[in-house]
Fold each of these.
Amino acid sequence: MKLNIRAFAIAQAFAAVILFIVCAFFVGFLPDATMSFTKYALHADLSGIMRPFSFGGFIVGLLVVSIGWGLFSLIMASVYNSLTKNAA
C-alpha cells in the first residue's frame, strides 16, 4: 500500500496542532497538575525550567511543532513508500 505523502503529512500536522492546543490549555490553566503529571510521565522534574506563558510563545510553538511534525511525517511517509514499493 502506497501512502499519499502530502495527505499524511497534513493529517499529522493537524494532529500536532490539536495536541499542542490541549497541552497548552493544561499548562496555562492547570500548571501544577501538569507539572505533577509530567514528573510521572517523563520520570524527571522539569519544574526548574518552566518558561513564562504568552500568546506570542503559543503561536510560535504552534507553528514550530506543527511544521516540524508535518515535515517529519513527510519524510517518514517517503521512507515507508520507498521501502514497500517492491512488496507484494
Note: The CA atoms of residues 42 and 83 lie 32 Å apart.
Amino acid sequence: MTRSFDSSESTDPAESIGSSDPFVRYLNAKRTVDDRALHRPTFERLVTALETRAANRGDDPVRILEVGVGTGTMLPRLCDWNALSGDVVYVGVDTRDAAIAAAADKLTERSFECIGERRFRLETDERTLTVELHVADAFSWASALAAGTVDCVIDELAGDDPTFDLLIAMAFLDVVEFDRAAEALFPLVAGGGLGYFPITFDGETIFEPVSDAERNAAVLDAYHAAMDAPDRPGGSNTGRRLFSALPAANAERLAAGGSDWVVAPDDDAYPADERAFCRYIVDTIERAVLTETPAPARAGLSDSDVVAWADDRRAQLDRGTLVYCAHGFDHLVRFP
C-alpha cells in the first residue's frame, strides 16, 4: 500500500520478471501480497451480496466496473475464489496503456477469446464472462459514460438500474479526491449497487530491522507527509476516514476490516516476485521524500540521509532480511 502516487497481479514470478515496465512488474508482483492482505470476512460478505445481485438480475448478467484495474488481477481472483455467480460483464478502466495491455494478455492466457478491440469473452458450463478494457481516466470515462459519449459493452445490456452492480476500486481512494469519486463514480452503482474498496492505505508503514531508528522514523514521516501535501489528492489516513466519509456519501456499510501488506523472507528468500515488489516500494519512498515532501516536513532530513536509508533497505533486500508491512482497510458498502 505504498502509495506509488499512481492509481493490480500474477502468481508466476517469471511473468513478473519478464515485464519491461517497472510499474507493471510491481503490479504483477503484488498479487501474492494482496491475496494475503485482503480481509476475508469482508470478501465473503461481498460474495453473498453479489449472489443476491445475480438473483435479482435473473437472466441478465451481473455488471462489474473496476477502476484502477491495473494489470487485471482482481478478476482472476474473483474467479479463483468463487466470487462470481452466473453471467458477468466486467469493465476495467486504467490510465496506463501498458497496464491494460498486460491485463489483456492475462485474459488471453486464461483462454478468453478476443471478440473486439480490448473486448474478451470466456464461455464455460457455469457462465459467460465478458470483459472490456479501457485506457482512460476513471472520472472522465465515468462522465462520458453518463453522457452517452463513450462506447461500452454496458450499453448493449437491457435495463440501467443501476448501470453497474459492483464498483471495485482497490488501492484507489487513497490517491484520488474522495469528493470527485463520489460525484463521478458512486452514481454508477446507485439503486442498490455495491462498492468494494479494498487495500486502502491507512497511515502505517513499517520496515524491519531498523539500524537507525531516528532516521527511519524521519523518512517514513516525510513519506506520509508527501501523501498529505496540499496539492496531493487522497491522503495517508484515507482507510480510517472512509468509515465516516462513505456514510456521509449516503453509502450503507456492509463490512469492513483490516488488510495489511506483510512481506517477510523465509530462509532469506521472498515468495514469488515479492523482492521486486519491496524494491519498488523502497524506490518509491526515496523518490517521494526527495521530490514531493513539503520542505517543512523534511526539516533536518538531508538528501544524503534519504539515500542512505534507501540504500540500507535495498541491501537488506539483497541479503533477504528486510520485512515490510503497511496497514490498510477494506470497505464494502451498498449505495441506495
Note: The beta strands are 62-67, 88-94, 113-116, 119-123, 128-135, 166-168, 194-208, 252-258, 261-263, 323-334.
Amino acid sequence: CQHRFNAGGRPLMTSLDQLLLVSLLSVFLTLLLGSQRWAGWMNALLYLIQTGFVLNLSAQGYGSAAVPSSISLQVFGHTLGWQFDALSWFFALITVVAALLVSWYAAGEWGRRFSQRGGNLWLFQLALSLNVFSMLLLLSSADLLSLFIGWELVSWASFLLMAIGGMLASKAALRYITYATAGAMALLAALVLVYQQAGSLQYQAVIDILPALTTAQGWILFGLFAVGFAVKMGLLPFHLWQAPAYAESVGPGAAFLAAISSRMGLYGILVVLVQLVGVSTLVDLRIPFTFLDGQTLLAWVAALTIILPTFTALRQNDARHLLAWHGIGQGGYMLLGIVVG
C-alpha cells in the first residue's frame, strides 16, 4: 500500500479520500447503530454530507486532469488506484442524492410500517449504505482491476438490497446474481485478454493494444466487454432478470436500484467502449456481408431495448411491474443517445 505525503511529511488526503472515508464510515455506523429508531435520519444526514463532498469535488474543477486518491495498492505487481473525473462526478452525484431521498423516505412512516410487518429495517439501511460505497469505489476506479473489483461489490450489494424483500424478491435476486455472475465472467475474460496482450491492466493499456489486435481479437474484446456491461444494464437479450428484481424489491430499495444500479452498466460502457476503445474503433469493427459494425450493432440493441420492454410494460396491470419494464426501456434510450452521439 502506498500513500502520498505532503512537504511536511503528513499524509495527503484528497477530497476523493474524504468522500470515500465518509461513505465507508456510514457503512460502519449503520452496522453498529442501524437498529436504532433514528438510524434512518442518521443515514440521511450522512448521505447529505457525501453530497456536499461530491459537490466540493466539482468545485475544484477538472479540466483534463482527474482528482486522484492519495492511496494506491500493489496486488501481485499490479497497481490499484482510484481517481475522480467529470464522468465519475456526474454518476456519483445522482447516486448519493438518490440514496439521500430513499433513506429519508425509509426513515419515516414507511420504515415504521415495514418494521411492523416484520421487515428488517437495519438490514435495509445497511444494504443501501453498502450499495453507495461500492458504487463510489466503482466510479472512482483508475484501472481495469479496480473497476472489476468495484463492479463485483456493486453486484453483491445490489443482491442484498433485492433479497431482503421476502420470498418473491429472493427468487428474483437469485436470478439477478446468476446473470450478474455470467456478466462478471465475461468482464474477467476481457481483462485476461488485455493483460495477455499488454502485460498491464491500466486504462492506457487498452488504448495501446488496439492497433495490434486482429479483427477477430477486436470482436472478442468488444463482445466480452459489451456482454458484461449489458447484463448489468438490462439490455436485450439479458433483460429478463430486471423487471422482477425491481418490482419485487422493497419499495425504497426498488426506487434506488431502478434509478441507479443498472446505470452502472452505462457507466462501464462509457468508460471502456467510448473513452478507451472509442466509437471510431467500433465503426471499424465490421461484420462481413452485412451493414453492421460495432457501433451500429450497439445502436440496434439499444433500439430493441427501447421498443420491446416498453411494449411489455403496456401490457402490465401492476404499477410496479409497469414501471420496472419501462425502466429497462429508459436504459435503451440512454445507450442509443450515447452511441449515435
Note: The first strand starts at residue 2 and ends at 3.
Amino acid sequence: MVKTIYLFLGKILVYNNYIYIYFTDDIMIDLKQILSSFTDEKQKEFINYLEKKNKRKDAKNIELTKLLLHDNYSSKEMSEKLYGKQNIVALHALRKRLLNAIIDFSANSSFKEESSLNIKLIKQIVSARRFLEQEQIKIGYQILDKTEVIAKEHQLFTILKEVYHTKIQYSYANTNIDLDSLIVLFKENQKQLKLEDSLNIVYTKIRKSLIDYQQKQTKQDIKSLIYKKLNEQGIVNFEELSFKSLYQILQITNVFSLQNFDYWNIEVFAVDTYKIIKNHKSKNKQLYYHIEILYVIANILFRNKKFDKSLDYLELMHSLMNENKQKYLNHFLPKHDLLVSLNYNYSKNQEKGMLLLESYINKKNVAIITQLDIYLSLIVYYFQNENFEKAQKLISKFYHTDQWYINKAGIIWTIKKSLIEILLQIDLGNIDL
C-alpha cells in the first residue's frame, strides 16, 4: 500500500514501511536554472566531469542533465523517459546525486579559477606548522618566509595574519627572529584587515543607499554619498584605498549610473580619486585592478562624450596590459578594443572603428558578452553607414532565442538587438516582416 502526504515544499512517500521524501516540480525547476546558468562551455565541462565520475555504466545523471537543459518536462515525464515507468523515488535520489555533483563541480571550478593562490598558500602554512610542531624550525620558517613574500605581493591580509600568528607562536624556538619587529608587522597587517572590513561595510551601505534612491526615484550626489559613507567608517585619507577598493566602489556606482543614464555624477569622483592613488606605493602589485579602473574611467568619459580623454585613458590602459609579460593582455584586449572603436565611431573616425571590430568576427576565445557587444556595435556602425547588407549578414549570427540572450547579456541588450533589427528591416523595405 502506498500513501502520499503533501508538504509545503514536497511530498513524503510511505512505501512498505519505508519513508521517502522527494521534491515537487517547483524545486526541480531550481536545478534546471542552476544548469542553465552555466555557459555552453561549462555545460560541456560538467557532462565530461560526470562521465569521468561515473563508475556504473547505467548511471542516468547525464541523461537527467540533458533533459533538464533542453526541455521543460514534468517529473512524471522525466521518470517515464529515464526509467520507462513512474519511479518518483528513484528520480528524487538521482536528482539529489546530480545536485551534489553540481556542487562539487562548481567548487572545484572555483578553486581552479579563483582561489588557487589562496589554497596554495594555505597548504604552505599548514605544511610549515607541521614542520614547526616536529621541531624542524629552520624549514618551517623558510616556508613561512616564502608565503609571506607572495601574500604581501597580492595583499592577502588574511593569509598574512596566519603567517605572522605562526611566526610569533614559535618565535621562542628561533633565535634569529626579531620578535618586536614581527609584532609591528602583525599590528600593521591587523590595521589593513580592519580597513578591509570597514570598506566592506562602505560597499554595502553605498549599494543600499543607491537602491533606496532608485526606488524612491530621487537624485543623489554620488560623490557626496561615497565621501559620507567612507567618513562614517573613519576613512578620511584616500591614499589608504587600494586599487581594488577603488575599483569596487566604482563598480557599484558605475552600475547605478548605467541604470539611470547618469554618468556626470560619478566622473568627478572617479577622475579625482584616481589622481590621488595613481602613485600608490603598491600600484605595481595591483596591476589587474589598476587596468580595471582605467577601463571604468574611460567608459565613463565615453558616456559623457569626452572621446579624446577617454582614448587617453585607454592608451594608458593598453600600456599596463603589456606589463608583466603581457599577463592580462588577452583578458582585457577585446573590451579595450570595443571601447576604442566606440570612441572612434562617435568622433568621426567610423572607418577605424569598423576595421578594429571586424577583426573580431568569428574570433575564438572571446568572452560571450563581449563578443555580443562587439557584433551589435558593428551592426550599428554598418547601419549608420547605410551598409545594410553587411548589417543583415552579421545580424543573422543572432540565431538564439530572446530568452537565451536575456540570460547571457541581459534584457536591455536584448531590447537593443530587437530595435536595431526592426530599424534594419524597415530600411531594407521588409515592412511585413
Note: The radius of gyration is 28 Å.
